[in-house]
Amino acid sequence: MSRKSNTTVVLVHGAFADNSSWNGVIERLAQSGVRAFAAANPLRSLTGDAEYVADVVRSVNGPVVLVGHSYGGMVTTQAAASLDNVEALVYVGAFAPETGESAVQLTALFPGSSLAETVSHVPLSSGFSDLSIHTAQFHEQFCADLGDAAAALMEATQRPISDRALSEPLSTSTPAWRRIPAWFVFGGSDKNIPAAAMAFFAERAGSNGTTVVEGASHAVGVSQPDVVTRTILAAITGGPPVT
Question: Are 192 and 217 in contact (CB under 8 A)?
Fold first, then answer.
């Protein structure tokens, strides 16, 4: 199947990251002639974050491939449930929840996540807390396969997430991946979301193509932009990822 020239890729970052985490993927998509942009994820509440992303996607003229990383997968799953122009979903080291499931629940679904041991809490006037990964532990926890300089920059620009967002369950009656084709790519050495959990999400969603990058960290879109880009291109064409 030929590439659909009118498709736009919308990328949604997750917790402890920002839009710049998609730079390498956006550059490679542009080289392939694909329009792409990153939508800033507020990281305040699942409902509010999804409503914002849905508004952004509605503003796009033409079909959209919606890509989520980490907690961004929670957001894209909820947002796409109310959208008519999303033709494919891509989960990049991301949660693909069922109705009623939260990121906190899914992180503990399989053993292997060490995230809770590395997170600091800052109380907010709302009664919730902002969560960030400690400076000294960020590199090993989040992006162990990046160099020191790149990891230090990601740590310094990390976006904190409200604990409200991580504990809020998917509230749509039907998760978007039940009606929209989905592709998955994730790191085999992810310390935030265990690889076994992401393999489970992919199987449950009837993944059209699943790529496991052995040795890759949670920041697989930063460390392995070529692989992630190939997965997104596969979602555009509706075929399997090209290896």
Answer: no
